[in-house]
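Every protein is a chain of amino acids, and every chain bends into a shape of its own. The fold becomes a row of whole numbers, each drawn from a learned catalogue of backbone shapes. The protein below has been through that process, and both of its lines are reproduced in full.
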Amino acid sequence: MIAQISPLVEGEHSRMRRLHILGGAVGGAVSGLSLGLAGAGLAAANPTLQPLGAAALLAIAIWAAAVDLGFTSPVRVPSRQTPQVWECALGPSSASFAWGVDLGTGITTRPAFVSVAVLVGAALIVASPFWSMFIMISYGIGKAGAVALAVNAHSARDTCDAIASHHGRITNGAVAAALCMAALLAVGLLS
């Protein structure tokens, strides 16, 4: 992924990075709105689903933490990555934005951590389009921004090496954030 995105995010440096990060926010907004509306519809149809969903989310967070920390075997996750053909089909500016959108959804590309499922689940369970969009826009900006900043700091190969060298700390941070979010949401919805 980094090797595909690098040429676009590096081109016209700040403009391409801004478009990529803006795309991440738009992708997060679209998936957040969709998840929030679906969650609100489910909660309206059956109010008991929300507390059950919060308890399930906490269980999913614990399971995802175990997978991400290597205590259980990895699971199959979507292997789809952003198509490299977009650069030719859309041109550099539009492709940089589109790649940001694709990353920002949190759903359409291969996740770096299974714990991302907790964010998607939280956006569904919170049953509020506003808060779901907040969760997913935050994710989209963070994901697209991290890629843009990493590419800016290094070449594509160096970026992959830098990420690999910090993988343990990045994993621990992702797991801790997912567990905290799930616990706070579960406590809030179950109390």
